[in-house]
Each structure stands twice: as C-alpha cells, then as structure tokens.
Amino acid sequence: MAEASKKPAEKDIWAEAPPAPRRGARFFVLIGVFLLILAWSVQGAKIRPGELFEGIPQIGITIARMLPPDFSKVTDLKNYYLPEGFSLVELLLPLPLAAERAGAKQRWRDNTFPQTVLGATLETVQMALAGTLLALLVAFPVGFLAARNTTPHPAVYHAVRAVLNFLRTIPDLALGLLFVAAVGLGAFAGTLALAIHTATVLGKLLSESVENIDEGVVEAIRTTGAGYAQILSFAVVPQILPDLISFTLYRLETNIRAASVLGLIGAGGIGYLMNTSFRTFQYQEAAAIVLVLIALVMLVDYLSSRLRSLVV
Amino acid sequence: MNDLQQQYRLEEVRKVFGRHQIALDGIDLNVQRGEKLALIGPSGAGKTTLFRLLNCTLRPTTGKLWLDDCDVESLHGKRLRAMRRQIGTIYQQHNLVQRLKVVHNVLAGQLGRWSTPRSLMSLAKPADLGLAHKALEQVGIADKIFERTDELSGGQQQRVAIARVLVQDPEVILADEPVSSVDPTLASTIVRLLIDISESTRKTLIVSLHSVDLALAYFPRVIGISHGSITFDLSPDKISEAMLEGLYAGNDREQPATEAVNEPASPIAYPSIS
Ligand SMILES: Nc1ncnc2c1ncn2[C@@H]1O[C@H](COP(=O)(O)OP(=O)(O)O)[C@@H](O)[C@H]1O
Ligand SMILES: [Mg+2]
To answer: Which value does ipTM take for this structure?
Structure first.
C-alpha cells in the first residue's frame, strides 16, 4: 500500500521533461474562443458604456451629498442611548456591579451598543477574530489529514479533500444566510459563516504548505525512531509555521472586509448600519460609517503586516 | 542481542524505483558488529539508496535484508520504530530542522525513547540540556547550543547532525557523504571524529565518501559500488589503481554531488516504511 501511494510521486519527479508545446493553429483557435467568450459575457453583463457615461454626474452628485461626512452618529454620546446612572468606565470595563445595575448594563451591551457605530465596529472586529481563530483550530488538524505526505490513510486524504473542496465552493454570504436561518439574526450567524469558509480555505492552504516541506528532514527525524505525532511536531510544524502565521493573518484581513458585508443580510457587524443609512438617504451619515470602516481595515492591515514581519 | 556478531546481512538485494529505475541491482553484503567500512563510487551508483535500505526507510524490492538477525520485512509499527532507533544516520544535506534551535535538533535523537507529551514539552523547555551539551561538546560546538540552526555554517550543521546521532546512541552509525560540503581539512577531522566515536563505543560505522583518499586512509574495509552493484569489497592495501579507474570509468572521480536533493515524498503515517 505504501508502495502504491509512492509510485505516482516517483513518476512525477523522475519522468522525462514534457514535450515542448506546439504553437500554431491551436493558438489562434484559442484566441478566437477567448474573444467570443468576452463578447458573450460583456453582452450578458449588460455593460453599456453610454449609461456609465451619463451616470458619472450622478456619482458626483451622490458623493457631493455625502460631504461633509456627518460624524455625529459616531461621536455624539446621545446616539449611544446610555442607560441612566452609569459612568462610561462602568459601562465599557468589566467592573463588579450590584445585581440590578449589572442587569441593566448587560441589556445595554447586548441590545443597544451593537446598534451604534462604535459597537458595530467592535462587533465586526470580534466576528473576524473569532471566525479566524475558530477556523484555525479546525484547519490545523485538517491540513495534515488533507496532505498527501502526512495523512493517516489515503482514504482519509481523499475524503477530507472532497469535503474541503465542496464547502469551499459555498460563498460566505450563502453560508451567512444559512446560519441566519438556523441560529437567528446577529453576529453568531456571521461568525459561523466566516469560520466555516475560512476553515476550508486555511485547510487547503495548509495542506499545500505541508506537501511542500523538505522531506529529508522528515526522513531524518523518522530514523531516530520517532512516531507520527513526534514527526509532525519536530519535522513538519516548524517548517510550515511561517506559512501558518502569514495565511492566518491574511485571512484575518479578508475576514474584516467579509464581516462588514455580512451585516447586509443581518448576520452582524457594521454592514447593517451602513446599509440602513444608505437606504434612508442619510448619505452624510453613511459617509462617516464608510470612513470608520476604511480606518478599521487599514489599521488591521497595518497591524497584521507588522506582526508578519516580526514572526516570519 | 548484543552478543550477536552479525549486524547486517544482505542477500541479492534489489531496489527498483517506479518500473525501470534500478538503483540497486543485487547486493550481497555482510557487516560484522563494530566494523568500520567506507563506500565509494560515482554519483548515481546507489550509495544513498543503500543507506536508506540500511536505516529502514526503504524496503528492498526483492532480496533479503537482516538486521541483528532480524528480517526487516517482518518489522512494523512499534518494533520497526525500535529498530530504527538503533540506527543513527548522518545525511549529506544534514536534514536538520532549520528553524529550530540547535538544542532541539540534538535532542531529536531522543525521540525514539521519549513519549509524545515529553517530546512536545521539550520543544518548549529542552528536556535534557545536560545531554545535549555533552554531545555538542564532543563535536566541539557547545557554545552554539541555543543558536538557531539556520545561522550555522555547513560544517557546524554537520557537527550538529553528528551530535544528534550521539544523543540517539545507536548501535550503527550510517553517514552518507558527510563531508562532501566541507573543505578537505575539516573533512578529515570529521571522518576521524566518526571513527573515534565508533571505536570508543564499538559502534558499527558505515560511511560513503566522495574522496577515495579519505576512504583508503581511514577505513580497514572499502567497498566500491557502481551501477547498483558491488565491484569490489577489500582492505585498502589490496585496492589497485586499475580497480579505482574501473569504478569511476565514465565518471569524474572527485565531482561534487549533483544528485537530486528533491526526493519524492514518502508518506510519514500509513506506511511505517516505504
Ligand atoms: N526516490 C527515487 N526515485 C527514483 N529514482 C531514484 C530515487 N532515489 C534514487 N534514484 C535513482 O537511483 C539511482 C541511485 O541513486 P543514489 O542511491 O542516490 O546514488 P548515489 O547516492 O550513489 O549517488 C540513481 O539513478 C537515481 O536517479
Ligand atoms: Mg547519494
């Protein structure tokens, strides 16, 4: 069995070089097909430059309406509907409070705060972080199961790959709708959607990283008499660690964006507020939210690139 | 077990990769316990493949291989791992974990004895510093113990690999072209170090060498391999210039190794051996 699984690999590496590709008639047929597909898709996507041209002033008008951004929703305390008799410190930090006041604080934090710009922004960050970390917990073992050289059995390899490939085809918005139906509106649904989608992507990336390790190190550790878990922890994990960290940070950046879109379907995060502002023609307010979101994304990108350069 | 005289016995061992890539073509070989022998031969002759059979990484395609009078074909799982523990290998490309500190690479020699939790904890806090330090002292780089392995030179990395084998404390030491990437003075120092270790602890030592001179100077038994077969197996004083010429016919004698480092992946889990 071992021999059987080894053979294709040997053939791949030691096979003769493939014949040089032939240019000519095939090449022009391919170009023709490409142009046909392009024409077909442009027509189907209803791309009409005329309308875009006419629309340009309209874009200008909308942008003008957004100016200046109205930050009152972000900065004005009254928009946070603070419960009476609490100081900000008491509300935002986990301090011990009397039972009755603790209840009031809890209600505010659970129901009111997430509807405010600051609260929704924090919720977006929390969704992205929780979704990414949960995904990492799942993807870490899955990555080994789905790699040719570390899977416990070829059947496991094929099964895990099939599941990963299938789940990865479901867009995270579709997963979000599914979980909203299952667990109700709110951040939990969005976090689950992010976690599942991210787990499939990370699992796939990690398995590829595992397949690219230096096998010589594995061989050397194996000849000391090490078992499976020991080989993984001494020979494999140290080699994939840089990839593991940078893939995870990269997915965290992506998930901040994804989490802000999930609000459109009521799965938590700042997207919901943004959508409401646009729908109710509060363009200046929407502009402020968009700016907060841009600042957030830039901050996360910056922090994660700093972290990456520290560890990789 | 230790009073057995025979370490290795190979009968008609062949190794064929894929369908047609014949790496070893009928090897007969007896190695006594505590013997020191050198393998020489051109690149592609099958030396690395022979080592991978001797350390239970590969199984023969056909033929028999006995280790300690035990047929390796019958070995699986725990017993196979226990047997591997008795064979320490030093690789041409060192095969150290570059991103780990030297101490972890050295202590990896203990993996065959440690439980999994113990090995994991050792990655956080080295479990047997004294042992690692002693081994590194023996190879002369005790001061590098906490350095990251990829910061060491090629010669220093080779010493780390030797220290790992010292910690493993096996019955057999296999060294596959251990000195092909270091300068000639260092090369003979390292060969002498291996011989010292073998003599002081009565370990069997098998070394493949690019340099015929080193082989003839230090080893009482020298085996020539070309095209997957043994062409001679003699003490150095019986080896003639003509034999060496025949061995390397059509090949450059001192050419640097150009073999593929990029060997196909062998799954680490389901086949205990591949
Ligand atoms: N994993 C492998 N798969 C296919 N062919 C291999 C493999 N390892 C070695 N070979 C082939 O076997 C022959 C012997 O190689 P090797 O044992 O590395 O020789 P040496 O170490 O003496 O240079 C070579 O022709 C090589 O191409
Ligand atoms: Mg070789």
So the answer is: 0.86
